[in-house]
Write a structure and sequence with these properties.
160 residues, alpha+beta, 4-stranded antiparallel β-sheet, 32% helix, 32% strand
Length: 160
């Protein structure tokens, strides 16, 4: 009986992280990143789609992460990272505040990132890196993705 209980405990411990990660409901198909539960979609540029297909860019499904300074990311959002040797380079992080804020309120209360809009008491915004990681310094491809392709992609952000 103890062996069955222990096996059930181990299976439960293994399933909880997978279930929690899957609960983000972020999907990527044919260049479209979306979360039907939160009701947003965003279309990647051809260059970003190609980089994702070639495994140069990773789409990370965020989980809610709290630091001593506050919440860093929230479940149901995503980040794009360019894979470089050492530490990967952030390209963009979609996030939200769990309250409805106007653009003016967002600028005052959050103070960073690019405002995208509100839906269901959530204010969506995205953040881009402020500096390059060691392996990305001077890489023109990464620079072009950050300065041109990511802003173009985020202009396609839609709330249903």
């Amino acid at each position: 009986m103890k062996r069955i209980a222990m096996t059930g405990l181990l299976i439960g411990a293994c399933l909880i992280p997978v279930t929690a990660f899957g609960a983000t409901n972020v999907s990527y198909q044919k260049g479209m990143v979306q979360n039907k539960q939160l009701g947003y979609s965003v279309k990647a540029t051809e260059t970003l789609k190609k980089a994702i297909a070639q495994d140069k860019v990773a789409l990370i499904k965020n989980k809610t992460v709290k630091s001593k300074y506050g919440t860093v990311t929230r479940s149901g959002t995503f980040s794009l990272y360019y894979k470089v040797k050492g530490k990967d380079q952030l390209l963009v992080n979609l996030n939200y505040e769990p309250k409805k804020l106007s653009k003016k309120q967002f600028d005052r209360q959050v103070g960073y990132g690019t405002y995208l809009g509100t839906k269901d008491n959530k204010t969506y915004y995205y953040v881009q890196p402020t500096e390059a990681v060691k392996g990305a310094v001077g890489n023109k491809t990464i620079e072009r993705l950050i300065t041109y392709h990511v802003p173009r992609m985020m202009k396609t952000f839609k709330l249903q």
